[in-house]
Amino acid sequence: MRKKLAALLLCSLVTMPVLEARLRRISIGTNPVGTIYFVVGSGIAKLFTKELRVPARAVPHAGSSVYLALLDRGEITLGLNTSLDAALAYRGSAPYKRALDVEALARIFVMPYGYFVKARSGIETLADLKGKRVVVDLKGNASLAALNWAMLETAGLSKNDITPVAVGGIEQGVAAVTEGRADAAPIAMGIPLLRRAHAAIPGGVRVVALGPEATDEALHELAPGSRTHRLEPSSEYVGVSQTTMVSAFDTFINVGSHVDAEDAYLLVKTLHENWAGLQNDYPALRDLSADGLDPATNPHPYATGAVRYYKEAELWSEANDAQQAKVKR
């Protein structure tokens, strides 16, 4: 009997996840406490702790531009980043002084993004922002400034047509509109912050559609990693009373080159196999199926271990191969 138990114990040790023999802890860089990135990052950390038996936690920062550099240096294990930030970081484009070693594990959700105004402001279109005070630069997330300008350009607006307003981040931009210090600010659609603004502003808010020159190609050229996105009126999206075209970008969970291929493989496998459970707990993930974690629209390459898993799960396509070759340095 003792020999049988010893054999079973030895077998269990041999078959334990490889991750336990490598990563001793997992830190996931996110945006500040209270943001959707922190909430989802905390949920993923909880999943990794449970399934992989490795201590994991979400580590909040001022913005995703900040912790991409930490990811590159191996000071954190993973990071939740927009496709916009990841594209600039991997290419070494401004504000990054050099190309960073960051790769994708998986896309985890799609974020619709656009400008909002006070519903009673008289502003109906982006073109109506001419001569107005418009939040453009977000110090906590440099890549969003490029997308903000790209959205304004779809209505033919340039820097000379508006009074640009710089703020620390999305939350400060919303406050600027709410308090009357700006006429329009960019916001991720459907997040609690916009709901609170809608409740606080007499008459509520209005989401303003992109201009007539909006195309996927035009947005991606000016803000790599972005595209157009149609919103339909629903209880989820306050300020949307009709079909409205806004921009969108993907959010990826990224990894630095210090994490080896076997660990990356197990991290992706764990995410994919437990995706339904994450969706039950976190509504932001519900629009994306488990088979949509590896879109062929990635602006930076997938990690080698992630590619291996997606191929084994029959989720990798010829389009993925083409995009991987296109974006890889």
Automatic annotation (TrEMBL):
One Pfam short name: NMT1_3
Transmembrane parts of this sequence: none
Annotated InterPro entries: TRAP_TAXI (IPR011852)
NCBIfam families according to UniProt: TRAP_TAXI
Protein name: Putative immunogenic protein
